Write the structure tokens for this entry.
Amino acid sequence: MKKHPVRVIAAVVVAVTLIVIYGLVNPESRFFPKCMFLVVTGWKCPGCGSQRAIHALLNGDVGAAWGYNALLVSFIPLVAVMVIASLVRLRRPGFYNFVNSRWIIWSVFVVVVGWGIVRNVYGL
Ligand SMILES: [Zn+2]
């Protein structure tokens, strides 16, 4: 399975553009979309604060990022492992299959839903 170079280049351009935007512009400005779940329900979804957390991380403030969305900061190592697993998929299919196993995916799902509940119950 060979990746089309235009798609790879487009993905890199989009990723770099988002990194630059989130690094330079504070998501609390009016240019960023608000969470519709929060607007409609008044409850934080598991992803609330992620834009602000990414902005804080890109500006080197891990503590602020943790305060905005601890789950996002906690999942950075997992995302790194998933990216690595994808990159070495052909050479290490067992590693890729383990990282993308049902057990891992369901565990992540339970943690995300649990975080969504806990942060609303305890005001995190
Ligand atoms: Zn939200």
Summary: The mean pLDDT is 92. Helices lie at 5-24, 36-41, 50-58, 62-68, 70-87, 93-99, 102-121. The pocket of zinc ion is lined by residues 35, 37-38, 44-45, 47-48 (CB under 6 Å). The first helix runs from residue 5 to 24.
